[in-house]
Amino acid sequence: xxxxxxxxxxxxxxxxxxxxxxxxxxxxxxxxxxxxxxxxxxxxxxxxxxxxxxxxxxxxxxxxxxxxxxxxxxxxxxxxxxxxxxxxxxxxxxxxxxxxxxxxxxxxxxxxxxxxxxxxxxxxxxxxxxxxxxxxxxxxxxxxxxxxxxxxxxxxxxxxxxxxxxxxxxxxxxxxxxxxxxxxxxxxxxxxxxxxxxxxxxxxxxxxxxxxxxxxxxxxxxxxxxxxxxxxxxxxxxxxxxxxxxxxxxxxxxxxxxxxxxxxxxxxxxxxxxxxxxxxxxxxxxxxxxxxxxxxxxxxxxxxxxxxxxxxxxxxxxxxxxxxxxxxxxxxxxxxxxxxxxxxxxxxxxxxxxxxxxxxxxxxxxxxxxxxxxxxxxxxxxxxxxxxxxxxxxxxxxxxxxxxxxxxxxxxxxxxxxxxxxxxxxxxxxxxxxxxxxxxxxxxxxxxxxxxxxxxxxxxxxxxxxxxxxxxxxxxxxxxxxxxxxxxxxxxxxxxxxxxxxxxxxxxxxxxxxxxxxxxxxxxxxxxxxxxxxxxxxxxxxxxxxxxxxxxxxxxxxxxxxxxxxxxxxxxxxxxxxxxxxxxxxxxxxxxxxxxxxxxxxxxxxxxxxxxxxxxxxxxxxxxxxxxxxxxxxxxxxxxxxxxxxxxxxxxxxxxxxxxxxxxxxxxxxxxxxxxxxxxxx
Length: 682
Ligand code: GAL
Ligand code: ZN
Fold this sequence. Notes:
alpha/beta; 17 helices; 19% strand; Glyco_hydro_42; glycosidase; Beta-galactosidase; hydrolase; EC 3.2.1.23
């Protein structure tokens, strides 16, 4: 379990990955002076330094790291110390080529990049844990160290390894899961296509094969691969926990870009949740993607404050065109993370590298030095974060939940499905973005979360769902909640077996509908609904079975068939959306659900202005991020902590700026338990 409140120091953490080993030692003193000028108080050190710390097996050289930590400590900078296992040194693969990972077609990936190891390799495990022991023994008591950083972005590059070592580990994992072969054969549906296994040794990872690999084999391999990464996390954590008292974390990659680590299951293995987030610059709604990732990170953290371990001050180096951030964008990005529950804002990396693959990645100190727009903005952000110290430890207000499950993501995007246009991100972001535009904050949470405190629950594309989670959603609605389920949800159980009797399987009764056949649309085809809205991608032959019809198709393959339904269940209402509504219609539907469920934004704000409330026992703060190019005014009374100015009723926020108002009348009440929705829903 996470140890709540175990962070050290005061206020909001601010800093970066710091790689002193890339620079001559004379630079270190300048670094610390600049860190102090910027207000940096925490740096992650040593992440990629294994090859320096252990130049040959078992021979450790810590002197340079001793000196670096001492310089930082003398400057008052705290350290999040890496276990340094993120990337093995060249000698490992040279001596033990069997530690190298393989792709599905058997290609062995050579060292020379990073993270070049098979996650199931016992040799890697043994060598990496020996390093963790040595680092922990040496620095457990170092006064600069306030946190431990296990590996780095576990699974970022090497999550799926298909080598023989991994194949053995996969078989072991399957034995644990199923006990005997009959159960595995049932779960994998191996009577199909003559796939029945009679010996464990016959089973392999889903290596490159003719036509489609068995879907449950694929799904189990994804589960196994996430667990294999998690096993490294847990093994390192165990070594640390016997030696150190500081909180232990690792950097997750929660967002819609990285799919293969089930962080919901990992959350209990860290003392605080930390996340890395990089903007998708080609996305005109990149700031909504950022908000989504932050709300999801908070969901994974169970609502507790979390740490933004990495983001970028400006451009990255790994996209085809690496667009720089415009003035003010860095500040809006960072403070949006804080608004949504981050109690620390760190970056990759402190000083832009001179050499190596990431030399064109932005940093706090650019190649051009501190006399730059970037360093000015860094200093301004440092001052902002100091002014926000009192926010630390407070929680974010949300009355709406969006259900998210990595296994549903993996399941829905397996091959040979009705339509390739049904992706997990699609309706997830469509519903989230509609809430964002309505000014409403959501918790993005796992389906097993206690939903009783939410007024509204949105369930996008929950293709794979466990019985218990489906039942919990029904109980939530019966108890007075409002829920919306979108198409291609409730279709299969955890083995990817269809729930028979009509779609949407697990949710048929709750939604009061029964679908007999899917009618996906061809690319570019659209249908019109009788309320004037349009839709694409998906339609289905749905029969109401207790639900009221809200809208039906006017044309397309199923004229007259319902597309949107509403079902009264106990004291609540369950909506089903059987098609992919356009953006305006999605906004209208979400607006209607918010009204019926009695959810309002913290304060009314113009479009493009993000408002989030954090609250503690006796205080509350309104975060206002103005993404528009005009000054906006909102109703607020209190003090803007960023300017120090009072606002008596009206808050002005200039174009592109941010305000954080400590509210004079604190809003400290917990979200009320769900009551029956008002008459409108009857
Ligand atoms: C992260 C990684 C960092 C750095 C950064 C660049 O994935 O953890 O080490 O590579 O990306 O954006
Ligand atoms: Zn392997």
